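Dear colleagues,

As part of the handover before I leave the project, I'm documenting each prediction I ran so the next person doesn't have to rerun anything. This entry is a single chain, and its sequence is reproduced below.
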Amino acid sequence: MLIRDYTGADWDQVWPILADVVTAADTFAYDPDWPPETAREVWVERPPGRTSVAVDHDGTVRGTAKMGPNRPGPGSHVATASFMVAADARGRGVGRALCEEALDWARRQGFAAMQFNAVVEANTAAVARGSGQPRHENASPDPAGC
């Protein structure tokens, strides 16, 4: 699997992943009624942020990530990231690979830490990892935290 920068040509494969994840309403607090144009505007980061995709050997996008400063101004030293994985690729290390790469990116960009902000209560795996508390992740941890 290759993790690379998102390009506009990837949208036709990224949109179904976003639509599936958002419609399920169990991991992201995004509006399931958003049209593709709104979802693209929200998901695709502008610099200094980054959007990436996880691509299989055959060119199929299996997941996507967005990352960038958590807050502007005085909060811009802390990064944040979000991840979505295609239903048929879950449990195969795609999310972990995207997370590890996002942490590497944050380290290369000089961020002091990475904070994962919004976790929907129904996302029991993520809530369990954070013990119900907001999860703060040093930008240079053992990637086992992903």
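The chain is about 30% helix and 25% strand. The two ends are 17 Å apart (CA to CA).

All the best with the project,
I.
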